[in-house]
Amino acid sequence: MWEAVWYGDVDYYEDRRPLDALIAAVPPEMQFSLSKKRTAKEAWDAIAAARIGSDRARKTTLQTLRKEWENLA
Q1: CA-to-CA distance for 20 and 34, rounded, in angstroms?
Q2: Which residues lie closer than 8 Å to 9 by C-beta, 6 or more apart?
Q3: 8 class by beta-carbon count within 10 Å (0-12 exposed, 13-18 middle, 19+ buried)
Q4: What does the pLDDT look like over 1-41, one tens digit per residue?
Q5: At what angle do helices 40-51 and 28-35 cross, to 10 degrees?
Q6: Domain tally for the chain?
Q7: Residue 69 burial class via C-beta count within 10 angstroms: exposed 0-12, middle 13-18, buried 19 and up
Q8: The domain containing residue 52 runs over which residues?
Q9: CB proximity list for 6: less than 8 A, separation 6 or greater
Q10: pTM score, two decimals?
Q11: From CA 1, how far away is CA 17, in angstroms rounded?
Q12: Cβ atoms within 10 A of the Cβ of 56, count?
């Protein structure tokens, strides 16, 4: 399964099972958008982007939270 998710170099039928597992494992609000992905790798990358975000976005969020914390103190 992880070969399909990490590398994406498996055939169509070997990719269906991991893709279905990923779709079943996410919250219902993400299932529709993931069902439009062609491969398990694309779905995994979409989950990672939605859950982790880019490094720049995380740093910006961290700075915002720090400012809010300082304003509370």
Answers
A1: 10
A2: 3
A3: middle
A4: 777 777 777 888 888 899 999 999 988 988 999 999 999 99
A5: 140
A6: 1
A7: exposed
A8: 2-72
A9: 41, 44
A10: 0.63
A11: 8
A12: 8
